[in-house]
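Need the bound structure for cobalt (II) ion, inputs here:
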Amino acid sequence: MDSRSGDRISLKTPDEVARLRAACRVVAEVLAELQAAVSPGITTLELDRLAEAGARRRRAEPAFLGYHGYPASLCASVNEEVVHGIPSASRVLREGDIIGLDFGVVLDGFYGDAAITLPVGAVSDEARRLLEVTRGALEAAVSEACPDRRVGDLGAAVQRHVESSGFAVVRDFVGHGIGRRLHEPPQIPNFGTPGTGPRLRAGMALAIEPMVNLGRCEVDTREDGWTAYTVDGRLSAHFEHTVLVTENGPEILTLHPSARDGAWG
Ligand code: MF3
Ligand code: CO
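Answer from helper R.:
Posting the output first, comments after.
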């Protein structure tokens, strides 16, 4: 957090919302292209190249490349990897894997950020259930992104959804405000107490991103300094949307234009 903006949560003007919307649309379109490319045999580095090219073709810049030294455009986290998996030519996707794709861009001064976790071919029943529960946790939190709700309501919604399904919420990473910077206040934990934390207002933009583990909640970081993985080695999933709080409720800015049901396919 830098001193210019302090801990204030920025409220976007209509002009800023238009620019945020454009950035988020690029993110949604590129993630849809990646989704179509995910299949057994592709490497995570190939997905990274597609992501970078997809951004640049739309006159946007990949947001993660060089961010605190991150060496790629895409985060590609396979199976027990939670987030921030570094794409690699030696990581070949295989049938039965699950892969988290987290991607962000900056366009005309505004950031968009979203993530999906996908099955590679046919996956186990428990993997499929983990993806469903994590996507459902994101939807539950998004539905709380209304004026006069509090940040703790979002975390509580995620936690309730996940723990009632028998899975565990990752506590070491949080969602965030977004706008002229990738990470703005407030931090948005995926657990919490209803009725606590900063109050939401129309014009706030939030990147809500539950990370859910099949087993225990503990995670650690690999030698590469980035890749977070589950300590018990079991599967983890991650979904993220950039959401605008409006007078009429939440508007998901990173929803692909062709998606009508309000969720990632
Ligand atoms: N969605 C992730 C986040 O908000 C992506 C950041 S990856 C990084 O933290 F490489 F840019 F750090
Ligand atoms: Co994010």
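Comments: The mean pLDDT is 95. Residues 64, 67-68, 70, 75, 84, 102, 104, 113, 115, 176, 207, 209, 240 surround MF3 (ligand 1) (CB under 6 Å).
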